[in-house]
Here is the input.
Amino acid sequence: MTIVVSPRWIWDAAGGLRGGQHVVIEGNRIADVVAEAPTLDADRIALPDSLLIPGFVNLHNHAFSAPLFRGLADDIGEADLPGDVVYSLLMPLGDIAAEILDEEEIGDVAEMALLENLKGGSTTIMDIWRLQQAPFVGRAKRLGLRTYSCPYLFSTPKMDMTPDGKPVTAPLAADTGFGTVMALIAAHDEGPRGRTRVGFGPHGLDTCTPDLLRQIGAAVEKLGVPLTIHAAQSAVELGIVQERYGTSPIRHLRDLGLLRPGTVLAHCVFATDEELAIVKEHGAAIASCPYAFARSGVAVPFARFLDSGIRLGVGTDGVGLDMVAELRAAALLAKVQAGRAGIASAEAMLGAATLSGAEAILRPDLGVIAPGATADLLLFDLSGARYQPVWNPLQALLTNGVAADLHSLFVDGVPLLRDRQVLVADEVSVVRRGGAAIRRVWDHARDMGRLPAGIAARLAQ
Ligand SMILES: [Zn+2]
Here is the structure.
């Protein structure tokens, strides 16, 4: 079936903003972008005051973590949790979820989160999940989303904190998960042009040995699968890498040969300007998630990332899975950091979330609206009061827009959302099932005395 979309405006980072165009979708491709509405027999979506842009590439997502930690990891003070939030709350709770939820429940949580991603404008999602969370793949396929699954690998099975916030590293694991990930790749990865990709997500430089990282690097090179890793994301990690290897996380990655095009480095909050230059020189990309870090009182150096000219994408991490909200938070943070209103313009932010993110995963065709490009698209309805008057639709969307005004979303030419309705799932049922599974994790953690006291108190309310 041919679909013709006739918006008021079209924008992509390659061609800029233009009006009066019709986009013809055939199969999974954009067949044409034309000034005259084609007369062929087609399904038509014509919406005045609408903006058509490439789908958002969400470059760092933890679908499972978002609903799992929602409401429990907010407004955390010293009295609630003395240690680092990642190591003393998020990772242990993730362990508990992995222990007690069955496959169906894990799938339900993933599907609920992916639904949130979809409604937040993500058409491509690079997600890092634990090996027990593999039902993610089937649920994402069912919804029709484009996913780059990068399951976690660990050399140390877990890392906890002492009550005074010191990291406790467990002995090396007998199984890093490498074999399991290889099997998942063999079973599910659809290759460089596929909608479902599976690759590697070694957790970090503090939790993965050089041997494991070299093994992963060789497999990525041989198989051409995705690779992402958390790097320079916390002071704890920096301290461990310095102590063990006498270097910094970014330099360590370079020395291991992992900095190259296609590698996505999550966060890099503690990277120096010199290290950003190293990342740039090697063609790797950074996935930045300012909203998640701001919640813990940490300012991601987003303005420095922009100024460095590095390949930069944006991800929702594991808080709200809404790319419009994420981009606004990132833009505001960058303006505050730089003390300049002109930085992080709407166009720059949308570019990071579309073409730049697409290039980071070596799929530039996902980031443009042009004949031959893959039809991953978002149509925003800018007719509402909050956008008036629309002088510049990009600024209207970034400054005051909400994802709820997403009218249609396409992946591979297929509408997953249309007329603001999700077409690929029964939302009420998905939310009910996913919510119940999360509740069971929290209740179990509390009942077993495994929640820090300050956090357990929140469940009692
Ligand atoms: Zn992460």
